[in-house]
């Protein structure tokens, strides 16, 4: 006796597979309104209208054929015939959510391409109608090249039609597939998404304005060329704004700290305590806090992009590029978080299944420009780069800032490419995600996000930065040179002597003593570099008025442009952050990988700074 034909229900999570299974077989499989209800296969029996028995399989939902979790693997193995002890299904019912066609058709296209006889169940038609969406199942069938049956699983509507369509395809092999669908499917997720979207559009008779808008925006936002141009333009605008909008509030904060410093100098008697407060605490912490407006503007943009639904689109656009350098698409979100700080970014890599994928992402996360670098970049750019307009509307300072961010990204991709061919060799996995609807960001959410960021930043200023500044101040202030000595106070101090000892190692890449002085305490946190420079100049030049103005004057006097550029390059690449090293140790369970990370990043930083210095000097900057 030949066994009854085997039919499998496949589709995205939460599309209604188990509900359909119950409707078709009369069984009572658990259904629930969240993804991941079914986590293993279930079999049941049903009869077609002509009395033929069929064995029906309910499978766990999946987003794609590249499994990212064990239950998705079950699904993939069953429908490709790779599952031990299971025969290849004679047909599959692809269940799609009619109200979410763009997302669900992506997987449907992959499934149809497998070549098994397919019937598509256009489920949850009731919800689509409620959302003001009218679909054309025949048009969808034409585009997909397989029968499409509208169903409402929970009301048992469309079940008979589904059985009939199934009877039509079972036993007819692939020949029954209509001619129109070419069945070819690509690994390129952006292309796949575009095709799914085009088919969804062709099958849509009418829809609400929100849905129409989403389609219209995505036609540009997800376009492989126009989308990338749009993304670049948005990022660009962001960095222009960081510079232009911050001027007024930053000046106000700076004036506040300057007044405070001057007041302390005017009222307190000259001595160690006055120097500690004015040169250490106020000059150091003030030098960092000035950058609060810029950090908030940056995060304002990031929060808007996240809340509007654009960020996921950016992830889609980047997926192709990420795959090209051997990164998993899932790495996008951790890498994106690393723009705030590498520590949460590295923690977010836990969502990456594959160990090698994950390790690669951890190793390159510090190359994403974290917000602690912003004060360093802004100070140096503001001091050394003139704010000339280029191409009429773009300003040079914003352009340089944008390039520094891009350099981090390009450096990370380059590093991934090399790592993937050497220390973390292996295949990388794909990426599927639901595409959210566009919506206006809610003011409340954005405000809460900004408040949290401000708090994190100020807390750092009040703890790590304050603490390292005080230590540095002490090391810079003692011992005091004997009266009448012509050695400067800084050079005579412990810190000055340490810096003078190691400066020769950095001279080949253009660094001066001030920089080496700043680099060591900056291991605690990158912003400390700015605090350190503030403290050094406050001690070195005690008669100058407090505030950023005199710090900038000192920088211009003591640094050359090639040195300043080399210093910027150092901060693009160098692993100047103890917290990142610590979290890498924790997430990789040992010292091997953090040691490797620190090593390769220092080498990279040294080479990049040196090259910048020499090239800049050679062309006479
Ligand atoms: N309104 C409506 N709700 C439906 C329909 N089909 C399923 N549902 C509901 O959608 C939710 C998900 O259904 P399930 O059958 O559990 O979905 P599933 O595809 O098996 O999900 P996983 O097992 O997680 O992959 C449940 O709350 C169902 O009651 C439908 O046609 N219309
Ligand atoms: Mg289920």
UniProtKB/TrEMBL annotation:
Residues 4-172 form the FeoB-type G domain. SUPFAM superfamilies: P-loop containing nucleoside triphosphate hydrolases. PROSITE patterns: G_FEOB. It is a multi-pass membrane protein. It is found in: Cell inner membrane. InterPro entries: Fe2_transport_prot_B_C, FeoB_GTPase, G_FEOB_dom, Gate_dom, GTP-bd, P-loop_NTPase. GO terms for cellular component: plasma membrane. Signal peptide: none annotated. Keywords: Cell inner membrane, Cell membrane, GTP-binding, Ion transport, Iron, Iron transport, Membrane, Nucleotide-binding, Transmembrane, Transmembrane helix, Transport. The keyword Cell membrane applies. GO terms for molecular function: ferrous iron transmembrane transporter activity; GTP binding. Gene3D superfamilies: P-loop containing nucleotide triphosphate hydrolases. Pfam families: FeoB_C (PF07664), FeoB_N (PF02421), Gate (PF07670). This is Fe(2+) transporter FeoB. Its main location: membrane. The chain crosses the membrane at residues 220-239, 276-301, 321-347, 359-385, 397-419, 457-476, 559-583, 595-616.
């Amino acid at each position: 006796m030949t066994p009854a034909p085997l039919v499998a229900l496949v589709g995205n999570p939460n599309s209604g597979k188990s509900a359909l299974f119950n409707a078709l077989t009369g069984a009572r499989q658990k259904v629930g309104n969240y993804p991941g209800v079914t986590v293993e296969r279930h079999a049941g029996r049903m009869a077609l209208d002509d009395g033929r028995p069929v064995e029906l399989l309910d499978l766990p939902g999946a987003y794609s054929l590249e499994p990212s979790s064990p239950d998705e693997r079950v699904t993939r193995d069953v429908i490709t015939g790779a599952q031990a002890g299971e025969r290849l299904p004679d047909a599959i019912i692809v269940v799609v959510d009619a109200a979410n066609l763009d997302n669900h058709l992506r997987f449907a296209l992959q499934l149809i391409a497998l070549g098994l006889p397919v019937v598509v169940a256009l489920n949850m038609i009731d919800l689509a109608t409620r959302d003001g969406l009218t679909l054309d199942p025949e048009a969808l069938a034409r585009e997909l090249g397989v029968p499409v049956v509208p169903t409402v699983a929970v009301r048992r509507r469309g079940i008979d039609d589904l059985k009939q369509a199934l009877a039509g395809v079972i036993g007819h092999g692939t020949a029954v597939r209509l001619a129109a669908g070419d069945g070819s499917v690509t690994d390129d997720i952006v292309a796949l998404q575009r095709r799914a979207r085009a088919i969804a559009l062709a099958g849509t008779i009418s829809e609400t304005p929100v849905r129409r808008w989403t389609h219209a925006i995505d036609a540009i936002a997800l376009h492989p060329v126009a989308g990338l141009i749009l993304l670049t333009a948005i990022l660009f605008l962001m960095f222009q704004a960081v510079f232009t909008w911050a001027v007024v509030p930053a000046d106000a904060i700076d004036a506040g700290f300057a007044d405070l410093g001057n007041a302390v100098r005017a009222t307190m008697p000259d001595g160690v305590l006055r120097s500690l407060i004015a040169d250490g605490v106020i000059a150091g912490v003030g030098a960092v806090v000035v950058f609060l407006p810029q950090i908030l503007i940056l995060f304002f943009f990031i929060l808007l992009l996240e809340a509007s639904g654009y960020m996921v689109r950016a992830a889609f656009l980047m997926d192709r590029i990420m795959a090209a350098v051997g990164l998993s698409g899932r790495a996008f979100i951790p890498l994106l978080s690393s723009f705030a700080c590498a520590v949460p970014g590295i923690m977010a890599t836990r969502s990456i299944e594959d160990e090698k994928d994950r390790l690669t992402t951890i190793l390159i996360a510090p190359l994403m420009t974290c917000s602690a670098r912003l004060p360093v970049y802004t100070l140096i750019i503001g001091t050394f780069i003139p704010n000339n307009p280029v191409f009429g509307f773009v300003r040079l300072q914003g352009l340089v800032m944008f390039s520094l961010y891009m350099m981090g990204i390009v450096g990370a991709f380059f590093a991934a490419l090399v790592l993937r061919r050497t220390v973390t060799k292996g295949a990388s996995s794909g990426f599927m995600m639901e595409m959210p609807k566009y919506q206006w960001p809610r003011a409340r959410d954005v405000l809460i996000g900004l408040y949290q960021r401000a708090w994190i930043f100020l807390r750092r200023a009040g703890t790590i930065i304050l603490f390292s500044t005080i230590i540095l101040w002490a090391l810079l202030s003692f011992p005091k040179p004997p009266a009448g000595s012509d050695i400067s106070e800084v050079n005579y101090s412990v810190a000055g002597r340490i810096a003078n000892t190691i400066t020769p190692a950095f001279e080949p890449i253009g660094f001066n003593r001030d920089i080496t002085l700043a680099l060591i305490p900056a291991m605690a946190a990158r912003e400390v570099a700015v605090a350190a420079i503030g403290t050094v100049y406050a001690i070195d030049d005690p008669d100058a008025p407090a505030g950023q103005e005199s710090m900038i004057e000192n920088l211009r006097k003591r640094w050359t442009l090639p040195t300043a550029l080399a210093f910027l390059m150092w901060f693009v690449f160098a692993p100047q952050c103890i917290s990142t090293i610590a979290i890498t140790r924790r997430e990789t369970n040992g010292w091997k990988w953090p040691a490797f990370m620190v090593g390769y990043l220092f080498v990279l930083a040294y080479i990049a700074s040196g090259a910048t210095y020499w090239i800049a000097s050679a062309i006479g900057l």
